[in-house]
Amino acid sequence: MNKLKIFLLLTLVLIASFMLLQALLFAGGVVGYLIAGNIGRIIGQIVLVSMGLSAYLLVAN
Question: Per the UniProt record, which residue ranges are transmembrane (predicted)?
Fold first, then answer.
């Protein structure tokens, strides 16, 4: 029973982090596109995802 709870918790964390990643990609794309067109969209996605990953690593540690 305990292993099942741990597995479900990890699954929820994975789903939540994936959804957060999608939201960061979308937000970065929109902001970058408004600022600098197609090139800005890609740069905005990279910047927001790297910021999100570094924040996640800070929280995880």
Answer: 7-36, 42-59
